[in-house]
Design a protein that fits this description.
- This protein is of the alpha+beta class.
- The chain folds into two domains: 2-83, no CATH class; 98-204, DNA Binding (I), subunit A (Orthogonal Bundle), CATH 1.10.30.
- Helix content is 15%, strand content 20%.
- It has helices spanning 25-34, 50-55, 100-106, 147-153; strands spanning 2-3, 8-13, 19-24, 37-40, 46-47, 67-69, 74-76, 80-83, 123-127, 142-146.
- The chain has a five-stranded mixed beta sheet with strand order 3-2-8-4-5. The protein has a three-stranded antiparallel beta sheet with strand order 1-6-7, covered by helices on one side.
- A hairpin with a 5-residue loop joins strand 2 and strand 3.
- Bound molecules: zinc ion (ZN).
- The site of zinc ion has 8 residues, from strand 10 and helix 4.
């Protein structure tokens, strides 16, 4: 098979239509064969039966619809798919912690103490309950601050930000973040309702 087999082609949604991951062309195709996903076509019809999808009959495709080819056939791949209920085990688990890069995306490079924006180089992962006192690296205990605020805070806990409220950790659930090789498709944006991240961000 050739075509888009290794490339990320498909945004995967859970049963509540929230992003839960991304699929490569090959994996999207396997899910189609297993009938474990439903697919949105270009007119936002949700196609339940993958035989209908494969028949191409009455399905609208994007001009740049990803596909796989075998010897004599083109197999179009959905760009947005929804997991069927019986395939919940495929749901991606919430990560336990996050890198500085991902925190920058989630918080839009904004320090959670002074609320100014900084370049990534001037930001740091803040452990709300200090590491030196046994604080963990878990999501509930990390946030993003500028280096200056981080230094002022030291190991004080609790600590109030410039709005006089306790510093907050990562908002849950953590939005799915595509890796930097993923070509973002415009039809994906509307499913990212946690507007903390802009998936069209060119730093991705
Ligand atoms: Zn700051």
């Amino acid at each position: 098979m050739s075509g888009h087999s290794e490339k990320i082609t498909t945004l995967l949604l859970d049963g509540a239509f929230l992003p839960t991951g991304f699929l490569s062309g090959k994996i999207a195709f396997l899910h189609l064969l297993k009938n474990s996903i439903r697919s949105f076509d270009a007119k936002e019809n949700l196609i339940d039966n993958n035989l209908d999808w494969f028949s191409n009959d009455g399905i609208s495709f994007y001009e740049d619809q990803p596909y796989l080819t075998s010897k004599d056939k083109i197999w179009f791949l959905p760009t947005v798919a929804v997991l069927k209920k019986n395939y919940i085990p495929f749901l991606r688990k919430t990560p336990k912690t996050l890198s500085l890069t991902k925190l920058c995306l989630i918080f839009d490079n904004t320090c959670q103490i002074c609320f100014d924006k900084y370049r990534k180089e001037d930001l740091t992962i803040e452990h709300i309950f200090p590491r030196s006192k046994g604080g963990t690296r878990d999501l509930e205990n990390i946030t993003l601050t500028c280096k200056k605020c981080n230094q002022n805070k030291k190991d004080m806990y609790p600590f109030r930000n410039s709005k006089n409220i306790n510093i907050k950790s990562v908002p849950l659930p953590v939005p799915v973040i595509p890796n930097k090789h993923t070509k973002i498709r415009p039809e994906w944006s509307k499913f990212f309702i946690y507007k903390k991240i802009n998936i069209n961000d060119n730093r991705l």
